[in-house]
Amino acid sequence: MTWHAPTADAPLDAVVVVPGSKSLTNRYLVLAALAAGPSMLRGALASRDTELMAAGLTALGAQEMTWTPQGLRAGPLLAADGEARVDCGLAGTVMRFLPPVAALTGRTTHFDGDPEARVRPMGPVLAALRTLGARVDDGGRAALPFTVRGPLHGGAVDVDASTSSQFVSGLLLSAAALPDGLTVRHTGTTLPSLPHIAMTVEVLHEAGVRVDDSRPDIWQVHPGPVAGRDLRVEPDLSNAAPFLAAALVAGGTVRVSGWPGRTTQPGAMLPELLEAMGGRAERVGDALAVTGTGQVHGVDVDLRTASELAPTVAALAALADSPTRLRGIGHIRGHETDRLTALATELTRVGAQVEQTSDGLVVTPRTLHGAVWETYRDHRMATAGALVGLRVPGVEVVDVTTTRKTLPGFVDLWTRMLGLEA
Ligand SMILES: O=C(O)C1=C[C@@H](OP(=O)(O)O)[C@@H](O)[C@H](O)C1
Ligand SMILES: C=C(OP(=O)(O)O)C(=O)O
């Protein structure tokens, strides 16, 4: 089934309310399960990735995971017997954050996920768990499916997180529950997505956990209780990206409400990035408003701290008036799909000239034409196709419902932004 991406036939004038952040919701859920008392996550994201996280924590013994109109009520883990099973779907946060939690419970836990998840990198997490005393059976594949059994002792562990910052975040999130705490040292030459590690440190601090991150590439989590919390989840700024980018393509203004004044989300980079590509970004009340003219400029940008934005920026680049170079994102070959190949293939199919480099893409705009846009079960490939379709008639996005990974209401929000009936 394909979705006919609508073109924008007039400048935009829209307010978009984007649901809660996937990265924050799933961190808060893990900490809620490790806390001593109940938590309430107001504005939590309800999507496939967060539902899988809640279900995984329930399988591991979480007392409560209840969606209410106000948000998600989450209760701590209780001791439970027997073997547990966790379905990771295609969620990096579930497959990297839950194995340490499973090891803490001492139960044998079987992890698996979608076929596409079985090629996502897991080796450094599994090696770290073994170093810390857990038994891991992965059949030598260093990938899903695998079985984990605790106990887990703390201390210190080295991890090469050059293919995903989530290896570090996953270990840190569980570390306060270890009797000795845990010091994690990154040993690789590059480290992507530093803001996501800062996000992990920040949510730990907010839950009363002491973390020392004063040395580069080393994080020390002290043992201690995790506080149950009543909190509000920020909107997902990475999901806001294609909507704000739409203003550059179609002209007019798109406002995303509830934009945080300060945030660890990589979407913090969007105002500067969209300005470099030809927009104007300003705060209006609690919103970020982006205004465009319909003319998009190419950029040369290192996206290693914000690689989730790469599909949006690559789609914009194909509609620009000059070439774009994206750097620092070799690791996104291990995201939901090999995103460098997927973006190069689909942008080439609609007529752009795209070269893959070792750590990114060079996109040279050409006259584009409609085509079937494959999405490879990748939510951000679907939203990138929608963005190209704003300008290019006849873009047919395959399996647009893949957006339910983090944004189940995508098609509704997109058509409403265009002033069309949802
Ligand atoms: O910790 C997180 O919530 C995330 C970290 C990043 O992963 P990588 O470091 O693998 O890019 C990001 O791309 C992903 O979407 C979410
Ligand atoms: C890379 C992403 O997801 P995940 O959390 O599955 O790694 C993403 O959402 O762009």
From TrEMBL:
<keyword id="KW-0808">Transferase</keyword>
<dbReference type="GO" id="GO:0003866">
    <property type="term" value="F:3-phosphoshikimate 1-carboxyvinyltransferase activity"/>
</dbReference>
<dbReference type="InterPro" id="IPR013792">
    <property type="entry name" value="RNA3'P_cycl/enolpyr_Trfase_a/b"/>
</dbReference>
<feature type="binding site">
    <location>
        <position position="164"/>
    </location>
    <ligand>
        <name>3-phosphoshikimate</name>
    </ligand>
</feature>
<dbReference type="InterPro" id="IPR023193">
    <property type="entry name" value="EPSP_synthase_CS"/>
</dbReference>
<dbReference type="InterPro" id="IPR001986">
    <property type="entry name" value="Enolpyruvate_Tfrase_dom"/>
</dbReference>
<feature type="binding site">
    <location>
        <position position="23"/>
    </location>
    <ligand>
        <name>3-phosphoshikimate</name>
    </ligand>
</feature>
<feature type="binding site">
    <location>
        <position position="339"/>
    </location>
    <ligand>
        <name>phosphoenolpyruvate</name>
    </ligand>
</feature>
<feature type="binding site">
    <location>
        <position position="27"/>
    </location>
    <ligand>
        <name>3-phosphoshikimate</name>
    </ligand>
</feature>
<comment type="pathway">
    <text>Metabolic intermediate biosynthesis; chorismate biosynthesis; chorismate from D-erythrose 4-phosphate and phosphoenolpyruvate: step 6/7.</text>
</comment>
<comment type="function">
    <text>Catalyzes the transfer of the enolpyruvyl moiety of phosphoenolpyruvate (PEP) to the 5-hydroxyl of shikimate-3-phosphate (S3P) to produce enolpyruvyl shikimate-3-phosphate and inorganic phosphate.</text>
</comment>
<dbReference type="InterPro" id="IPR036968">
    <property type="entry name" value="Enolpyruvate_Tfrase_sf"/>
</dbReference>
<feature type="binding site">
    <location>
        <position position="193"/>
    </location>
    <ligand>
        <name>3-phosphoshikimate</name>
    </ligand>
</feature>
<feature type="binding site">
    <location>
        <position position="120"/>
    </location>
    <ligand>
        <name>phosphoenolpyruvate</name>
    </ligand>
</feature>
<dbReference type="Pfam" id="PF00275">
    <property type="entry name" value="EPSP_synthase"/>
</dbReference>
<feature type="binding site">
    <location>
        <position position="405"/>
    </location>
    <ligand>
        <name>phosphoenolpyruvate</name>
    </ligand>
</feature>
<protein>
    <recommendedName>
        <fullName>3-phosphoshikimate 1-carboxyvinyltransferase</fullName>
        <ecNumber>2.5.1.19</ecNumber>
    </recommendedName>
</protein>
<comment type="similarity">
    <text>Belongs to the EPSP synthase family.</text>
</comment>
<feature type="binding site">
    <location>
        <position position="166"/>
    </location>
    <ligand>
        <name>3-phosphoshikimate</name>
    </ligand>
</feature>
<keyword id="KW-0963">Cytoplasm</keyword>
<keyword id="KW-0057">Aromatic amino acid biosynthesis</keyword>
<feature type="domain" description="Enolpyruvate transferase">
    <location>
        <begin position="9"/>
        <end position="412"/>
    </location>
</feature>
<feature type="binding site">
    <location>
        <position position="165"/>
    </location>
    <ligand>
        <name>3-phosphoshikimate</name>
    </ligand>
</feature>
<feature type="binding site">
    <location>
        <position position="22"/>
    </location>
    <ligand>
        <name>phosphoenolpyruvate</name>
    </ligand>
</feature>
<feature type="binding site">
    <location>
        <position position="92"/>
    </location>
    <ligand>
        <name>phosphoenolpyruvate</name>
    </ligand>
</feature>
<feature type="binding site">
    <location>
        <position position="166"/>
    </location>
    <ligand>
        <name>phosphoenolpyruvate</name>
    </ligand>
</feature>
<feature type="binding site">
    <location>
        <position position="308"/>
    </location>
    <ligand>
        <name>3-phosphoshikimate</name>
    </ligand>
</feature>
<feature type="binding site">
    <location>
        <position position="22"/>
    </location>
    <ligand>
        <name>3-phosphoshikimate</name>
    </ligand>
</feature>
<comment type="subunit">
    <text>Monomer.</text>
</comment>
<feature type="binding site">
    <location>
        <position position="380"/>
    </location>
    <ligand>
        <name>phosphoenolpyruvate</name>
    </ligand>
</feature>
<keyword id="KW-0028">Amino-acid biosynthesis</keyword>
<feature type="active site" description="Proton acceptor">
    <location>
        <position position="308"/>
    </location>
</feature>
<feature type="binding site">
    <location>
        <position position="335"/>
    </location>
    <ligand>
        <name>3-phosphoshikimate</name>
    </ligand>
</feature>
<dbReference type="InterPro" id="IPR006264">
    <property type="entry name" value="EPSP_synthase"/>
</dbReference>
